[in-house]
Predict the 3D structure of the following.
Amino acid sequence: MYAVKSVAGAMGLGLIGFYLGLGIVAILRWLFGYPDPWGGEINIIGGWVLGVFLWLMGIGMWGQWGREWFGLKTYQRNLPGWQRYFTFNTDHKVIGIQYLVTFMVVFFLAGALAMLMRAELAQSGNQFLSNGQYNGTMGLHGILMVAVAVAAVIGGIGNYAVPLMIGARDMAFPRLNALTFWLVPPVAVGLLATPFLGGIEHGWTAYPPLAIRTNSAQVLFSLSIITFGLTSILGALNFIATIIYMRAPGLSWGRLPIFVWSMFATSWVALLYTQGFAAALFLVLLDRLGFSFFDPATGGDPLLYQHVFWFYSHPAVYIMVLPGFGLALELIAHFSRKPLFAYKYAVAAFLGILGLSGVVWAHHMFTSGMPNYLHGPFLVATELISVPTGLIFLSALGTIWLGRLWLKPPMLFALAVIFNFACGGVTGIFLADVPTDIHLQDTYFVVAHFHYTIVGGEIFALFAAIYYYFPKMTGRMYSERLAKLHFWWMFIGFNATFFLMHLPGIKGMNRRIADFQSELDPLNFTISLAAFFLGASFLVFIWNMVYSWVRGPVAEANPWRVRTLEWQTTSPPPHENFPSIPVVRGGPYDYGVPGSIHATFPSAPSAGFAGAPAGGGQ
Amino acid sequence: MHGKHLISVALLWVGLTAIGELLVFADLFPTVGSHEAEDFDSIFRFLLILGIPVFTFVIAVVAYAALTWRIRAEAPDGDGPPIRGHGWVPRIWLVITAGLAIFVMIHPGLTGLAKLQSSATAYGWGKQEADLEINVTAFMWQWTFDYPDGTQVSVAKGGEVVIPVDRYVKFNVNSIDVVHSLWIPAFRMKIDAIPGRTTFMTVHPTEVGAYASDQAYRVQCAELCGLDHGKMWLPVRVVTESEFEAWLASLKTQGN
């Protein structure tokens, strides 16, 4: 098995690189006369840098990319079947599926951690977890889920669908694309290794001075997030270039599918702001090595970190939710059999949110003790964001109005996005208004709110997209009955869990605690039961996906009778997607318009293209 | 073509809103222990009254559309009408949503903020002059409260924060290690304790009360501060002025 050898070899190289890095730093420390050459956290940093580099080289960057730097010939292996998912493959469809499967696995891992937390929180006092273990579990759940929310839709669905939707053969920079994916495994290893160094003690937000004083798991956390930020930035760059330069002839900006528009806006947010998080954590790393940016004991300012951190981490929620909105609108138009209502307003909404996303960050800091004059402007900017967000709702509700709603599983999930986000949006007003936020800040009300927006808005859209693209990706169909069972189970479980979660927040339960006041016992017990119910719903999903991928009936090329380009090729599409580059003649959503066509395919295949064998993935 | 549907959705919306607004009467809040808590509860209710119709509007349209216009056949037999949403509908929507946003922004947002902040350059909530000033020091993972007469309250000493009712009580908050946050649920007030900077919050308790009978009376750390963050809390007792003086005196005699 070439793939197994390749991955194992790369892991070996990565490990060698890691120890080599540790050693080089140790030698340097010894040369400069430090007392303990092996004991510094800077050794881990050196190990990380070299380890990640050699891992990338081993997995295929050397063969396909690095050799070129020395004037050597590059080579590419095109492996059959499942093996191609374990190599440095530059096909955007392979990379999309790699992202999707990887982050679904991370999603279920982090979900299991949530179950553990709810087990602990079913009753006041400590039952299963000590305070330290709870903090580690909570921090790991948080950061893993943030990673899923940032990368599952963009990296998975975005990579898979965007080039297909715009009629391109691949992304603008295929090797860069593969690089962004293969940076993810070290990130996962780094984060999952944190419990062995004492666990993440500071949640996913890593506020100093706690982050400076805490155990060495912080170093792995920071290195992982900086690396992950690199993935995000490079991916965003790739999407922007792809969407600007790779659109098929005739696919003007006004004809672009709305999901592609949302990916365009999202990529700009990711490109512009991600370095905030990376920079903040980089400075934390330096602080741990003896600098003092954030520790007041040595002249730093802890609030500086919070500003830099939220300068990314508020836009990050739009990185998470904008593609979710885009998917919801996309699917709602197709499954209502109607043109997208107020298309231009929806586009304006995405661009408006992109514009406002950078000027609202300090609403996370209303109780932080920042100077009083900052509260007003950030309150105003935050409330303003509800205007473009409202346009998304206008577009969704206008589209289903008088439509012919085909309530297939993707459509059910897409409608649930609208439902859930309406609740998440309304509770957001309570947190944007300073007088109510003072009490609600850092309580379970906030936890409920952001799960409504991110899980309800984005993860539901992710499942919509998985049920939508599963036949395209695998060439097989899943059980619709199980998919609908999963939908109702998850929808009810989700709303039960997180709607109830607002209540302990108002009553006075703060977040990130293993133990709480006994008066909230009945409420928390109910929430835990609802959470276990929600968690169990994913078993249906996993069974349905795994079984159908192996044994499901063969899917049609266009099972949903959809007009956009990705459905005008075979399921799964051939390498390079289309027999010939399509020519776009009209909008993607012209349902009900007599004689309208979205695109035509010139009949003569372009030179060097071997044709499109039905059902073949190579 | 729209008329019948519009009326049905409007009725559904009104019905759902009527049910939803019942939430305003629900027992959502902890004990009201201060003026600030009264303000919070009334603003929260006000936002709830405004927010619920927004939420039920979305539910009404989605539910009505899904029930009325669903395709029951195995595959769609035709398309819907190609309504594109040019013209007046999006404009009216924009005016209404922007109007709502600006309304909420001004009241209760900015008006409430003006009530909370006594100065644009201060670092905290409420009046800067108070009847009683208590210096709070947060550390991993407890608090100390220093009263003007030199009395100190901590886990070791007294173990209970006592303040007088009907007086403005100002907490000057500091931290000696990491970021903490001082939160008293009965007063609905919270301010972070940041090392290297003094923040404050002034509360005006209106009721006597104590943790022993009501768990909303406690000082709780609300910013993750490491291992025992969850255990970082102390009981609070609000007493009458004379009881307060007696309590201070008794602590003094115990050699505090």
Residues 70 and 76 of chain B are 10 Å apart (CA to CA). The mean pLDDT of chain B is 94.
